[in-house]
């Protein structure tokens, strides 16, 4: 089995929920690059609130991790109806394969809701290792 990740670097999938079941949960993908407890990244998600002519919303991520505490700001790319910032605060599990917490948008109205992120590349790595174990060459006894 592979060593545990030592950083948040990798591909993540997740979902965030709106408050009071205002809308359906929103899935997202993110790529994070962590170095010395700070990280940057990018995310993409289906458009649920901006210009309806735009299918996908892109954002940049900037944050830090202290132990299992993770916080970052997601800044949406400026398209009609987007471009704002969302603050995320969460807790990573010991394996750094899952982050759970809350997001928050401050403004005229404060919005907040839960989110969860799972490391997508951890699952892929584990699957590849399991596959390699199964595909190990078999020893064949010589014919007599």
Provide a brief overview of the structure:
10% of the residues lie in helices and 49% in strands. With 144 residues, it is mostly beta strands.
Structure, described:
With 144 residues, this protein is mostly beta strands. It has a single domain, classed as Quinohemoprotein amine dehydrogenase alpha subunit, domain 2 (Lipocalin, Beta Barrel). Helices cover 10% and strands 49% of the residues. The protein is built from 1 helix and 8 strands; from the N terminus they run E-E-E-E-E-E-E-E-H. Strands 1-2-3-4-5-6-7-8 form an 8-stranded antiparallel beta barrel. Strand 7 (98-105) and strand 8 form a beta hairpin.
Low-pLDDT parts are 124-141
Give the second-level CATH assignment, the architecture.
Beta Barrel
Shape: globular
Multimerization status: single chain
Number of strands: 8
Mean of pLDDT: 84
Describe the secondary-structure layout.
Layout lengths: L9 E7 L9 E10 L2 E9 L9 E11 L2 E8 L8 E8 L5 E8 L5 E9 H15 L10
Main attributes of the structure:
144 residues, mainly beta, eight-stranded antiparallel beta barrel, 1 helix, Lipocalin
């Amino acid at each position: 089995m592979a060593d545990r990740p030592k950083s948040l670097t990798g591909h993540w999938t997740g979902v965030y929920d709106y408050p009071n079941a205002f809308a359906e949960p929103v899935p997202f993908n993110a790529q994070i690059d962590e170095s010395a407890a700070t990280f940057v990244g990018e995310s993409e998600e289906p458009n649920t609130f901006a210009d309806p002519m735009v299918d996908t919303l892109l954002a940049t991520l900037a944050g830090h991790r202290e132990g299992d505490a993770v916080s970052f700001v997601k800044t949406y790319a400026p398209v009609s109806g987007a471009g704002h910032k969302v603050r995320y605060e969460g807790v990573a599990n010991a394996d750094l394969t899952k982050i759970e917490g809350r997001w928050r948008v401050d403004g005229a109205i404060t919005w907040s809701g839960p989110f969860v992120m799972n490391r997508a590349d951890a699952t892929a790595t584990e699957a590849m290792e399991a596959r390699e174990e199964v595909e190990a060459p078999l020893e064949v006894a010589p014919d007599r």
